[in-house]
Amino acid sequence: MIKLNRRQALILGGAAATTALAAPAIAQNTKIKVGALRFTSHSGSFVAKDRGYFADAGLDVELEFFQAAQPMAVAIASGDIDYAVTAISGGLISLAQKGAIKVIGGALIEEEGIDGQQILASDAAYQAGVTSPAMLDGKAYGVTQTGSSFHYVGDKIAQAEGISMSFKPLQKVGAVIGAIKSGQIDAWNIVPHIAKPLAGSGAVHIIGAVQDYLPGYQTTTVFTSTDNAENQRDKTEAFLAGFSKGVTDYNSTMIDMADGEAGVDEMVKLIHQYVYADRPFEKAKPSIVNGTMRINEGAKLNMASVQDQLEWFKAGDYVDQGVTIEDLVNTSYVETMS
């Protein structure tokens, strides 16, 4: 009798389940492009591709990488990519209102007990006394774009603390990193695999956690074109099936430690192909491990968080007042929570 370890069993079980769901419904090797950022938080897609879960679902997946959320939304709307995982932005909502895209599931989420996005202060600001978010009154907060998820989080922090900040759009995550390291901005929030190494270098300081202000925050969502969501159901279900198998492996290994340190090493090696690939494994591993956050099983979607985000964008006039949650989300694919 051949004994399988847990990961082998997951792979074989996942392959069988996914093939049963999707293979009869779509042509094998259906080519799709999936948008991603080079973040640990996008590991569901990386694992699904490398462990064959997308292939088992009948999909031939090409990953296409971006540097911010809004360009990814534009790429979905234009048909340049088919599916993506990223944060909700004003641009995404506006495209949804125009009938171009739909959110179909949830991905990264802030969960109590697991380090999530960190709030950072530049060294200059920290040395000047900014040691907590409450001390950011009058300070410059970095965002990629006006009406981005960073803007949402920063403004929610300001509202909670009763303070006022200016928001400086810098277009790309790399530019924001450069600005906070050089003191051109005073603060920012970012996922832990970026926040912790920056803080460890002494260039910035962690002064708070996003989950203290936004518990259960649906940090990223799974989305696609409206055509895929409404007219290509078999293909969309196949994508979600493969993606969800990748998420299960990731959570089991990195959050629940089901396969111990050996399992973590194997998973990190897989992720390292996409995240910090320019660094030696030994140097990349701590940063990748630091980026571990829960990704929703089965692409479950926190609708209360999505609704709150939508209302914030509307209140700030970053999107049209007439846009509705039905414009933004197709709830027919995954379980929702409120």
UniProtKB/TrEMBL annotation:
Domain SsuA/THI5-like: start-end pairs: 40-248
Pfam family, one: NMT1
Gene Ontology biological process terms from the UniProt entry: alkanesulfonate transmembrane transport
Cellular component, GO, one term: periplasmic space
Presence of the UniProt keyword Signal in the record: yes
Record's signal peptide: 1-22
Record-linked Gene3D superfamilies: Periplasmic binding protein-like II
Keyword vocabulary terms for this entry: Signal
Keyword Ribosomal protein included in the entry's annotation: no
Compartments where located: Periplasm
Predominant location category: periplasm
Domain of life: Bacteria
Family in the record: Belongs to the bacterial solute-binding protein SsuA/TauA family.
Protein name as annotated: ABC transporter substrate-binding protein
Species this protein is from: Pseudooceanicola atlanticus
